[in-house]
Amino acid sequence: MSFDYDLFVIGGGSGGVRAARVAAAGGAKVALAEEDRYGGTCVIRGCVPKKLMVFASEYSGMVEDAQAYGWDIQPGAFDWDAFKGKLEAELDRLEGIYRNLLKNSGVESFDARATLVDPHTVELSDGSRKSAKHILIATGGRPIVPEFPGSDLAITSNDVFHLEKLPESILIVGGGYIACEFAGIMNGLGVKTTQYYRGAQILRGFDDEARGLVSEEMCQSGIDLHLGTNVLEMTREGDKIRVKATNGDEALFDQVMYATGRAPNADDLGLEDLGIERGRKGEILVDKYSQTGVPSVYAIGDVTDRVNLTPVAIREGMAFVETVFNGNPTSPDHDLIPTAIFTQPEMGTVGLSEEEAAQQEPIEVYATSFKPMQQAFAGRAQRVLMKLIVSQASRKVLGCHIVAPGAGEMIQLAGIAVKMGATKEDFDRTVAVHPTMSEELVTMKTPVRTA
Ligand code: NDP
């Protein structure tokens, strides 16, 4: 049986574009359909614009620090329009790069929505049909807002980059990556920032001590964080939003941003008719090779809700190509993934939290919290944390947690050692780089506790 293509990819985000390019580079005939902008969540409405906003927001504190270091410099106002213009131009440039990457690797792309018709056929939004030996679904995810009175007044991370003007006040709801990162961004840009989180401490699932310090520092920097608090209802009042909270508070905000999780984009793709199974959150269920129950259909990235991170989607895409086009069955490795949360201060983490490790086996905990030189000199009270979780039996470092400016950069490197199975003694054998914050990772001699 002959097909139009060897591979048809649905979704032009990080995972889909990488899989399409690598398959095409190996000689496969590949097409890709994207209904929105090329680059997907990460490039267009996620990691990239978010990090640029983090950079923008960090300059506010830098002026004061520079003054403390002797600079005659005065803080000025932040110009949202100027920043937004540059941000939009940068995203246009990056989208162009993504389109070119596809074109230059010989992938045919369609600016259209694609749905599945049968195990080897997709239908595009213009009504045309394309057949392919393999179909890869890489449609990502989207933010979700729970239903409650006035929930339609909330914006999400999709909207925050397009605001006409920077609000004077904002309420951010949620305690995950996105909520905490945007609380730091808005606060840094000079917006009066309030955050509600329904649980006892933000960043659930991460090391308790690390998230405790992030939370403390966020409050220190001026974020009005309310734990154990949720929204009951919201009403429009002039150009503001009145919010009634579960703790009895009532307040007015210019904007309310919900960051209460994301859902896989797997609706209306035609999956049900083909008998492709979905999980509790609506994610596409796949095996360890990213294959669905229909052998010619695979899925990667956030739509499968495994580990929802760009570099993981890219790895899943590469493993798919290796498996299907290179005859070398390869499953993506989801173990010991280093990751960073761009809160202020940043958190970098790899491996097990102290709480998870203690459940698993006897451990030693090495940790130190101190005022870093650069900020201490400028008179800031800010503290950082360096922490290692060590197996008593194997001496392996099971987890490394860093809360500090630049923690994302540090954890990438510490992640290599942890992934290689380094022991505490391997860390100790490494000479310190002085004077740095991360040298503490190789100079901690005595455990602060065992568990
Ligand atoms: P998360 O799932 O991480 O967090 C959702 C938050 O919203 C949790 O604090 C949750 O509370 C809370 N929540 C859920 N439902 C409700 C509700 N009905 N009412 C009130 N609060 C609610 O989602 P995010 O949207 O923050 O991030 C999605 C994913 O995106 C992350 O898991 C991550 O993989 C990825 N991401 C990664 C980044 C990075 O690597 N730096 C940056 C941004 C996103 P509870 O804890 O009680 O469940």
Descriptive overview:
This protein has helices at 14-25, 40-45, 47-68, 80-104, 157-160, 177-188, 208-220, 271-274, 310-325, 354-360, 373-377, 407-419, 424-429; strands at residues 5-10, 30-33, 108-110, 114-118, 121-124, 129-137, 141-143, 169-173, 192-197, 224-227, 231-237, 240-245, 250-253, 255-258, 262-264, 297-299, 339-341, 347-351, 363-370, 384-391, 397-403, 449-450. It has three domains: 5-142 and 263-324, FAD/NAD(P)-binding domain (3-Layer(bba) Sandwich); 151-260, FAD/NAD(P)-binding domain (3-Layer(bba) Sandwich); 339-450, FAD/NAD-linked reductase, C-terminal dimerisation domain (Enolase-like, domain 1), CATH 3.30.390. Helices cover 32% and strands 24% of the residues. α6 (177-188) links the parallel β8 and β9 (192-197). It is built from 13 helices and 22 strands. By secondary structure, it is α/β, with parallel strands linked by helices. Strands 1, 2, 3, 4, 5, 6 and 16 form a seven-stranded mixed β-sheet that branches. The structure holds NADPH dihydro-nicotinamide-adenine-dinucleotide phosphate. NADPH dihydro-nicotinamide-adenine-dinucleotide phosphate is lined by residues 146, 173-179, 181, 197-199, 204, 230, 259-262, 308-309, 339-342.
